[in-house]
Amino acid sequence: MTTEQHTESAEATAPTTVLLTDVAAVKVKALIEQEGRDDLRLRIAVQPGGCSGLRYQLFFDERSLDGDVVNDFGGVEVVVDRMSAPYLAGATIDFADRIDAQGFTIDNPNAQNSCACGDSFH
After folding, report:
1. Virtual CA dihedral for 104, 88, 66, 21, nearest 10 degrees?
2. How confident is the model over 8-17, as pLDDT tens digits?
3. Residue 95 belongs to a domain with what CATH number?
4. 85-107 pLDDT tens trace
5. What residues contact residue 84 under an 8 Å CB cut-off, 6+ apart?
6. Distance CA 50, CA 95 (A)
7. Does 9 fall in a domain?
8. Does some domain include residue 3?
9. How far apart are CA 100 and CA 5, in angstroms?
10. How many domains, in total, are found in the chain?
11. Is residue 28 domain-resident?
């Protein structure tokens, strides 16, 4: 009788999608409600630009593109296009409302370097 041990690799346990914190989900939901539309979703993309080479884009979008990765967080859909998905795997979107910081923040484990403003990365 043999017993097999199964060990999971880091690749198998690493998140493959972007995560949205509860605080950020509440803020996104409130902003969508202010728009007065129920067809909008939060889209996050990575585009060339910024002082570090790549720039984050966060915006509301009603479109569905071929290859989109869609996740639901408490009724808030977060959409990532297929080209941006590898750059954003495991990234966490949060919302800060403090005296020293206000707005959406992105903690991306794939970013090797980022600029001081936090808007772009490499």
Report:
1. -40
2. 434 444 566 8
3. 2.60.300.12
4. 999 999 999 999 888 878 998 99
5. 44, 45, 46
6. 21
7. no
8. no
9. 49
10. 1
11. yes
